[in-house]
Amino acid sequence: METMHARRQAWAQHVQAWRDSGLTQVAYCQQHELKPKALAYWIRRSKQTATPLTLVPLALQGPSAGGELLLQHASGWRLALPAGIDATWLAGLLRGIA
């Protein structure tokens, strides 16, 4: 049985080979006897994991009177969120604005 790691590596190689080929996804899949939907899935997945996360310095201050989390960017934007915000949702938001 193929391990998940081996499967990911095999698909990563297909994704890179498709990018290098200049072929459409369908044409590449026909040549390599792959399902186009499977290749499309792994292409999307590679885009999600290709963006490395970046650590940025934070200045922590005491809790605000309103019980909110205030995010402020060096460019000037500010985002106030409730202190009890779901961490998974917040992580997705931060990935989206990065």
Notable characteristics:
two-stranded antiparallel sheet; single chain; Transposase; 98 residues; 2 domains; mainly alpha
Q: From N to C, what is the helix and strand string? A: HHHEEH
Total helical elements? 4
- What share of residues is helical? 40-55%
Q: Shape, please?
A: elongated
Report the count of strand segments.
2
In angstroms, what is the radius of gyration?
A: 21 Å
> Any idea how many domains?
2
How much β-strand is present in the residues? 5-15%
Main sheet specs: 2 strands, antiparallel
Uncertain spans: none
Mean pLDDT level: 81
Report on the structure:
The chain starts with a helix and ends with a helix. It folds into two domains: 4-50; 53-98, no CATH class. It is 53% helix and 10% strand. It is elongated. It has a two-stranded antiparallel sheet with strand order 1-2. The protein is mainly α. α1 (4-21) crosses α3 (36-50). The mean pLDDT is 81. This is Transposase. It comes from Pseudomonas weihenstephanensis.
Short description:
With 98 residues, the chain is mainly α.
Write the layout of secondary structure elements.
Elements: H1 4-21, H2 25-32, H3 36-50, E1 68-72, E2 78-82, H4 87-97
Antiparallel strand pairs: 1-2
Helix pairs in contact: 1-3
